[in-house]
């Protein structure tokens, strides 16, 4: 194993490392959640990941500085599990593109060591930040929350044009990666027939697309808002029914061959 490599001592602000997640890529995953996110989604289930700085409540500290090598040391412990399950490293957030050099060096070295890599991202960053990362990943999970810019700004705090442009620019990438588009279904917010049709039509234009995942809204994280002393804006909103999720899948399924 290389003892000296690019970015080995680069520091990142880590929210937590989680093992055996089944949602963040194939097989057994070690998920590195980074702190910091430029969005403020009203339904965010990890408000403790949004601020880049360390945060403390009465009972918990959120955030810890670690170097690339310190994180990789933890990841290497899980290599035997990756081997049998086809798993690997997933870098998530917050928004992992907020710490681009740390993320790139971590992913690059993991790949060099033969570890499978995936990222979870909003794609909310300049293309010159996004592109170098894509060269080091096998799977990209990217969120598509709205097509409508005004709604995106209202519910996520930022305009979505940068995100939509970045999605389309992945079409020009010659590197090999599978793109999985994740659409959170937030009842009464982004699940109108019109929005769903626009999202389906948009996904059909993405050449790296493997499939689309629809994720039902849930209230996980609302307790953390209380602990952090922040209001939870979607108080009282219920999760979508199984039937409603099927209806949404059927709309998107008119445009793309695989929707789960
Ligand atoms: S992009 Fe993700 S981490 Fe950032 S605010 Fe939205 S849900 Fe939370």
From TrEMBL:
UniProt xrefs under Pfam families: Radical_SAM
Cofactor(s) required, per the database record: [4Fe-4S] cluster
Top-level lineage group: Bacteria
EC number of the protein: 1.97.1.4
Family annotation (Gene3D superfamilies): Aldolase class I (3.20.20.70)
PROSITE patterns documented for this protein: RADICAL_SAM
Claim: Thylakoid is one of the keywords in the record: no
Protein's name according to its UniProt entry: Pyruvate formate-lyase activating enzyme
Originating organism: Anaerostipes rhamnosivorans
């Amino acid at each position: 194993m290389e003892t000296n490599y690019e970015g080995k001592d680069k520091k990142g602000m880590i929210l937590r490392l989680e093992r055996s997640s089944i949602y963040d890529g194939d097989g057994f995953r070690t998920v590195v959640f980074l702190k910091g996110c430029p969005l403020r989604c009203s339904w965010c289930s990890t408000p403790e990941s949004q601020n880049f700085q360390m945060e403390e409540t009465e009972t918990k500290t959120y955030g810890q500085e670690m170097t690339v090598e310190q994180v990789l040391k933890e990841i290497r412990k899980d290599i035997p599990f990756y081997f049998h399950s086809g798993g690997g490293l997933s870098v998530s957030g917050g928004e992992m593109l907020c710490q681009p050099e740390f993320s790139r060096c971590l992913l690059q070295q993991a790949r060099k060591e033969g570890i499978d890599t995936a990222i979870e991202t909003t794609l909310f960053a300049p293309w010159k930040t996004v592109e170098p990362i894509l060269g080091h990943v096998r799977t990209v999970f990217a969120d598509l929350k709205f097509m409508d810019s005004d709604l995106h700004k209202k519910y996520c705090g930022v305009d979505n044009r940068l995100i939509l442009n970045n999605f389309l620019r992945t079409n020009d990438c010659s590197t090999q990666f599978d793109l999985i588009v994740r659409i959170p279904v937030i009842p009464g917010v982004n699940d109108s027939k019109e929005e769903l049709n626009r999202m389906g039509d948009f996904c059909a234009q993405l050449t790296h697309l493997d499939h689309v995942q629809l994720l039902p809204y849930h209230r996980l994280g609302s307790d953390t808002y209380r602990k952090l002393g922040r209001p939870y804006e979607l108080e009282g909103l219920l999760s979508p029914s199984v039937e409603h999720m099927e209806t949404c899948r059927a709309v998107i399924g008119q445009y793309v061959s695989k929707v789960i």
